[in-house]
Design goal:
The protein has 205 residues and is of the alpha/beta class. The protein is 33% helix and 32% strand.
């Protein structure tokens, strides 16, 4: 009996060691959508001041893991591939950085700005579709409102869709989403300039 207990104990210990080894061999990778500071153009005040409100995203994408499409109807949560922050915050951070670069002005959200007009931006992401080796799809509705002192004047509501081809690997997939968000920020920035100049029009309108 003593030998059996010793053998059983050794097997349990071996199982624990193997389990720890398996965990150690599968590290978690973290990703961000926010572009590096070195990639942002210098800010020179070429556009209106702006504030970007919190971004909404589809419930199915509101996960710490990357959610990827498999086949026609299947999706998978990648336990070892995760966002460094909640996806809605990542998208907002990326858009804020891209807009600051495109407009040459910092995001004034949460700051006092009574001395100049400000374009308030609201973005609702409707689709954030990821297919490794296929595409990074971004579909969003967005609106602009020019805030001028205590009065509100001129507003605009638009929608944009970007289907960015991507190569294999999760780095390429995340880069595809970064590029799609950059293109969205470019459209919003142009519309913000037009709105501040008295022309309310969506891209291509």
């Amino acid at each position: 009996m003593t030998r059996l207990r010793n053998l059983s104990g050794r097997l349990v210990a071996l199982g624990a060691v193997l389990a720890l080894g398996a965990c150690a061999s599968a590290p978690t990778h973290y990703y961000t959508l926010v572009p590096p500071a070195s990639a942002a153009p210098e800010q020179g005040g070429s556009g209106p001041a702006f504030e970007l409100l919190p971004v909404s995203i589809p419930a199915q994408d509101d996960q710490p893991q990357l959610v990827v499409r498999q086949g026609g109807q299947g999706v998978a949560l990648l336990q070892g591939e995760r966002w460094i922050a909640p996806l809605a915050d990542e998208i907002r951070g990326a858009l804020s950085a891209d807009l600051a670069g495109a407009l040459g002005r910092p995001d004034v959200s949460g700051l006092a700005h009574a001395d100049e007009p400000v374009v308030r931006i609201k973005v609702d992401v409707r689709r954030f579709d990821s297919q490794p080796g296929g595409h990074a799809l971004l579909e969003a509705g967005w609106s602009l409102r020019l805030i001028d002192g205590d009065s509100t004047s001129r507003s605009l509501a638009c929608a944009s869709t970007f289907n960015q081809p991507v190569g294999s690997g999760y780095d390429a997939l995340v880069q595809g989403h970064q590029q799609a968000l950059g293109r969205l920020a470019g459209q919003i920035a142009q519309a913000a300039r037009d709105l501040a100049a008295g022309k309310a029009r969506c891209p291509g309108g």
